[in-house]
Amino acid sequence: MAHRRLWTISVSIFFSGLLFCEAAAEAKSLAECPPIESEPVKVEAWMSKRYGKHLRQLRKEFSAMGNTRVTLWVYPAENPSKTVAVGRCVPAYIARHTLRKAIEYSGGVNALVHQGFVSSHWIGVGTSLFSENSLQPITPDQLTRLMDDSFDTKQFQLLYRQLTVQPDKVKAFGLMLDNPKLMKDFNRE
């Protein structure tokens, strides 16, 4: 049992490292996002175990907007994280659709991951891959603003970045210390 838990933790750390390295490389790139037709969005969602028998149907629902590759996993507990990560090149219509599905199947969204930690064409739903210092809690009002259908992709992405600005200092060991996960020089607006 301990070996299995250690293996799971090691795999999570490995994939987080890969996402971080890819995101860091993309942050340095000043190139525009390629068209969605040439690079589809990868959607990865961790679903409550109560949906385990319905993954095929849920995969179709998550991919209904097109230009996506969807992978779903059954979360080992009843309720996965209510954290969502959206990459900087994800079109607003795909991001909003995925957020609606996250609300429907994960019970809501209460935190967003800073884009410096994720691939530009990636969305994570119910993800617990990221530390608390990598994400920002959001209110229902902020989520409603983010879901506004009148926003184009540029406006959506700008608001997403504004909602995920990391603090320079965080509480640790009863002190206020420098944020060890602070993404410097990445979309600081």
Task: Give a written overview of the molecule.
The protein is an alpha/beta fold and 189 residues long. It has one domain. It has helices at 2-28, 55-62, 92-106, 140-146, 153-163; strands at 41-47, 68-74, 83-86, 111-113, 122-125, 135-137, 169-172, 175-178. The protein has a six-stranded mixed sheet with strand order 2-1-5-3-4-6, covered by helices on one side. Helix 3 links the parallel strand 3 (83-86) and strand 4. The chain is globular. Residues 18-30 have low confidence and may be disordered.
Helix content class: 25-40%
Task: Give the domain tally.
Answer: 1
Q: How are strands sequenced across the largest beta sheet?
A: 2-1-5-3-4-6
General shape: globular
Secondary-structure element pattern, one letter each: HEHEEHEEEHHEE
Helix/strand-derived class?
Answer: alpha/beta
Instruction: Measure the end-to-end span.
Output: 46 Å
Count every helix, treating DSSP H or I runs of 4 or more residues as helices: 5
State Rg: 16 Å
Strand content: 15-25%
Low-confidence stretches: 18-30
Q: How many strands appear in the DSSP assignment?
A: 8
Mean pLDDT, nearest integer?
Answer: 83
Largest sheet: 6 strands, mixed
